[in-house]
Design brief:
This protein is mainly α and 89 residues long. The chain has a single domain, classed as F1F0 ATP synthase subunit C (F1FO ATP Synthase, Up-down Bundle), CATH 1.20.20.10. It has 4 helices and no strands. It starts with a helix and ends with a helix.
Length: 89
């Protein structure tokens, strides 16, 4: 049972690392928005093109955060390796 506790502890650490992706996603989104605002300020006539590109970039950044959350949820609640370990014990 001690090995099971160690495995569960490692799973929780890995889930925390996967969730830290959300923190870095926030910094990435702020960088995208900052650069888009700066570009619009320099070339106001290209605002529509810059804005549409910004929204595509923000969507891609957001999916990265969602994937991190999905991986953490799978590791915590539906981990198939944990089931195999329990069956071996």
């Amino acid at each position: 049972m001690e090995s099971l506790a160690k495995v569960i502890g490692v799973i929780h650490i890995a889930a925390a690392i996967a969730l830290s992706n959300g923190i870095f996603t926030t910094f990435g989104q702020s960088k995208v928005a900052c650069q888009a605002i700066e570009s619009i300020a320099r070339q106001p006539e290209a605002a529509n093109d810059i804005r549409s590109s910004m929204f595509v970039g923000l969507a891609m950044c957001e999916t990265s955060g969602i994937y991190g959350l999905l991986i953490a949820i799978i590791m915590l609640f539906a981990n198939p390796l944990l089931d195999k370990l329990i069956s071996l014990l």
